[in-house]
Write a sequence for this structure.
């Protein structure tokens, strides 16, 4: 069952086309990674999906409802963490969650609020004004707020912004738990490809106002180019020998060679190089398969 | 409708607990203190009769209330947009119109606070004179309608204009133009320009009504027309607010 369906979506701002014939399909239970460079229209798409921005054309369907006409009804069952989300600094965290609970028709007790805060690792911050929170704490509180109505579809715009590695891992675990245990569908818009690789089963890449790729994450990463850096002992003069089938040297800096490995596993590539007699002293992966794939679909990361 | 109550409560609590709300009331009390001192001095020196002093003090209270309504209305949506809280609010299933009505209720709540703060000042100025109680009643009526008019108008602008500065500059300009009967003084108000301003602007209508009640001791039947005019202004602004909210931008 598809919980999000977009077809031929169009949106322009002051004559500039932000979305043009964009499509998107998110199935129930997916963790969908929505990728694209800055200004590619990801946030605009999320706003249209939530019904807080009107589209110029196309059809949009979220949980069987059209957000532009049934937005208030839809927003009872979904929730969102916007990219730039401010807070009422004078409120205490517990009051903040209770206030948003009331907006969803819920009467959250102190225990409910504490449970939501513990869920995101804000264990002892419930009776503090939000203005005293650090950026990471605010991000966690924003995620707790986005979970107050136990949404069926959760939209997250850069959810791990401002979080330290431990915090990121905790949020990953929480999202995976919500997805596996409660069947929550999650749509994540992010630039952090590591988040996508850890969490998502499907991805969509938006560039130049259209979806360039949509499909499973696995097929996006497999069979594509992977970038590696090799340090070769006594490296001068071996550049030509490195160009084996499936391995292409991109750049040389001293003994370091930046290569692209195509359609083979990195271990196999290293083995081939060693068997050819090239003394590989060190090998460092420069980017994941997803990164290479992302760059390939977004013009090397250049802005449209 | 629980969420509407929650929104109104948030607006009212924010009005008291946020630093800018408290500063506005403190400044307001300072202004009322200065004017009440001047008016009492004038009354003591027999330069003004007691009713005139009450009427002038009521005009100051109305002016202050409208000024605060303009400031709060300008901050309504534009302030939330600048503080990046608007998107989060609108993604809750509350509806932009309900959010606007809650904000307007918060502005009216500010007026109630100003009204209660002004009671001791009006009492100080006019306790020994005539028509103090009618002054309170008509001040409350006229003030509420003017606050809805000016606060609602700037709130509607803040739904469309993205910055507080932009809305505030238009709101203050409107406030100065329509509040000119207070600035002009009695003699200029008798001129053609003054009479024209009195006839078309809600401030003039409200002040004439207070003059009629407090100074001339005229009855309620005389006040039906000015009250109807103020009601029309408030109704027109509510319609404008409704239309502006439908095209609100993030």
């Amino acid at each position: 069952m598809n919980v999000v369906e977009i077809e031929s979506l169009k949106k322009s701002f002051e004559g500039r086309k932000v979305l043009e014939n964009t499509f998107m399909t998110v199935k129930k239970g997916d963790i969908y990674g929505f990728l694209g460079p800055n200004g590619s229209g990801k946030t605009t798409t999320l706003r249209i999906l939530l019904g807080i921005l009107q589209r110029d054309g196309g059809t949009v369907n979220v949980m069987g409802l059209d957000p532009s006409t049934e937005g208030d009804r839809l927003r009872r069952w979904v929730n969102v963490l916007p990219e730039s989300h401010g807070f009422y600094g004078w409120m205490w965290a517990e009051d903040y969650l209770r206030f948003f609970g009331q907006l969803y028709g819920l009467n959250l007790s102190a225990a409910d609020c504490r449970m939501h805060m513990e869920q995101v690792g804000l264990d002892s911050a419930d009776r503090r004004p939000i203005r005293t929170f650090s950026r990471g704490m605010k991000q966690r509180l924003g995620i707790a707020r986005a979970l107050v109505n136990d949404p069926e579809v959760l939209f997250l715009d850069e959810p791990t912004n401002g979080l330290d590695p431990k915090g990121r891992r905790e949020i990953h675990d929480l999202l995976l738990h919500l997805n596996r245990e409660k069947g929550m569908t999650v749509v994540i818009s992010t630039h952090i490809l590591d988040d996508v690789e850890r969490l998502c089963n499907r991805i969509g890449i938006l560039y130049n106002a259209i979806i360039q790729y949509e499909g499973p994450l696995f097929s996006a990463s497999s069979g594509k180019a992977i970038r590696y850096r090799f340090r070769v002992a006594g490296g001068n003069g071996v550049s030509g020998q490195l160009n084996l089938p499936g391995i292409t040297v991109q750049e040389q800096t001293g003994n370091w060679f930046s290569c692209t490995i195509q359609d083979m596993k990195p271990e196999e590539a290293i083995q081939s190089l060693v068997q050819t007699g090239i003394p590989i002293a060190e090998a460092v992966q420069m980017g994941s398969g997803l990164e290479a794939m992302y760059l390939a679909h977004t013009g090397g990361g250049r802005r449209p | 409708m629980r969420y509407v109550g929650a929104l109104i409560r948030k607006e009212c609590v924010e009005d008291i607990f946020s630093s800018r709300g408290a500063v506005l009331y403190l400044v307001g009390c300072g202004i009322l203190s200065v004017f009440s001192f001047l008016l009492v001095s004038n009354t003591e020196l027999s330069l003004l009769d007691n009713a005139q002093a009450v009427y002038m003090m009521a005009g100051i209270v109305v002016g202050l209330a409208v000024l605060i309504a303009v400031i709060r209305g300008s901050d309504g949506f534009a302030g939330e947009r600048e503080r990046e809280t608007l998107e989060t609010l609108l993604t809750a299933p509350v509806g932009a119109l309900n959010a606007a009505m809650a904000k307007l209720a918060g502005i009216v709540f500010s007026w109630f606070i100003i009204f209660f703060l002004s009671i001791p000042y009006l009492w100080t100025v006019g306790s020994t004179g005539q028509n103090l109680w009618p002054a309170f009643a008509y001040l409350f009526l006229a003030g509420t309608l003017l606050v809805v008019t000016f606060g609602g108008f700037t709130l509607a602008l803040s739904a469309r204009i993205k910055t507080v500065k932009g809305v505030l500059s238009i709101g203050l300009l409107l406030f100065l133009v329509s509040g000119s009967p207070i600035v002009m003084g009695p003699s200029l108000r008798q001129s053609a320009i003054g009479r024209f301003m009195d006839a078309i602007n809600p401030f003039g209508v409200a002040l004439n009504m207070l003059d009629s009640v407090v100074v001339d001791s005229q009855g309620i039947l005389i006040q039906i027309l000015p009250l109807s005019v103020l009601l029309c202004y408030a109704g027109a602004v509510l319609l404008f607010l409704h239309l502006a909210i439908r095209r609100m931008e993030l």
